[in-house]
Amino acid sequence: MIEARNVSKLYSRGVYALRDLSLKIDKGEFVFLTGPSGAGKSTFLRLLLRESLPSDGALEVAGRNLERLTPRQVQTYRRSVGFVFQDFKLIPRKTVLENVSLVPRVLGAPVSTQHRKTFQVLKWVGLQHRMNAFPMELSGGEQQRIAIARALVNDPILILADEPTGNLDPDLSLDIMNLLREVNARGTTVVAATHDRELIRRVGRRAIALDHGTLIDTDERAGRDEPASKHDARA
Amino acid sequence: MMRALRYFLEEALASLWRGSKTAFIAIATIAAAFFVLGGFLVVTANLERLIARWQEAAEFSVYLRDDSTPAQRTAIEAALRDSRLVQSLDVISKDDALRRFKLHFGALAAASGDIPDNPLPASIEVRLIPNADAPQVEALAAKASSLGGVSDVRYDRLWIRRLTSAVGVVRAGGFALAAILVLAAALTVASVVRLALISRREEIHIMQLVGAPLGYIGGPFVVEGLLQGGIGAALALAVLWVAFSFLSTRVGPGLAATIGPTAIVFLSPLMSLAILASGMMVGCIGGLMAARSAREIAD
Fold it and tell me: pTM (2 decimals)?
């Protein structure tokens, strides 16, 4: 699904955000990117979102070499990728319904399809009853659920989550991770960046550890089938 | 396509509503620019109509020397009648001229009684055919002035031509001023729409990340500019109409008595539509300038 071959990212001030990174992530996998601040987690996600290009090396997603995409192909590619950010990135002046339906709307879907798909994902994240609320009226956990709903509404093959629990307390963090596990159980590949090693331990999925832009560890561990419980989290 | 247009319109209206104060500045600037442009068009169009009326009614007068002989007068009349430019002649004797003077200038008529001899010359008033060619008429006037017994030739069209030139200068100046104002209006729209764009930077980023087509990102800004331009131009036309109605009720009757009942008119429907369309175009250009920035954010 994702293959990075000797990927480096050099910023203009001469600092390497990623250096000679090679890794593979299989289709349907749930992978954590971990490491301290400045390790290169967000930079790698930005490369996967095709927000920037590697300075060196090659990065392929679902058989596409991201470097060779034309602007139009970048648009098409991004429609197959969902993203979730730490700060949710919801549009404050739009309701929950409008925030989530923005994706099918700007992709030109008919209104009936927009509403059907939006309602489906809102129901899936358990917030269909808040569809007329504005983001500021929601808790942090609810806002992140809406962000996940928006990421899912276009049936992506890949979900990229950059510190999705960074603004949430441990219980809510686990809720969000369980939701992402459910997304993954439906066949969607999930790549989540977090520096929270404890959360990774509880969720129990492969973790790719980065430090100063280089791969220092890729921990193959069997994922647990059942969601991690809040009780477990507090243990 | 219709879905896209609906999306652009809804987003543009919402943005106008949100940024109503800044949008008002852009609309007012466009309205001011098009008010000036429309005002110049009204004034110059009416002056041109007036000049055309005067041109149609134009005549030239051949003043005869007091000592001109009957033979000379007959020769002058014959020379004028032979021209295909002349519709009719009216021979005014010295006595007729004095009677007219007393009729039109009653206050001065008493004073004229103190003058022993009638100082006014006899004349031939030449009425020209409609749309007579000006250079040919000038040639005829020059020929008449060279005939024996003629003291002077007064040709109305000389000053009409000068007036036409003056109107042309006024119009060119007006258009230049309006062009500067319209350019300023376009830049104002661009700035205002760009402000809206900056306030929606996050939203544009999200649209970029979900793979929205560039047209969807920039479209609402173009429509917002177009609406601002259209509203501004419509406002300018409305204010111009109110000002025109007010002035025509105040000075219209006086003008009508002098130059005819239908002498002053407002802009034609076609011209009004052209102003409205120009306003929308100017706004659209401003919106496009801002939309280009949106695309730069997206890129």
Answer: 0.67
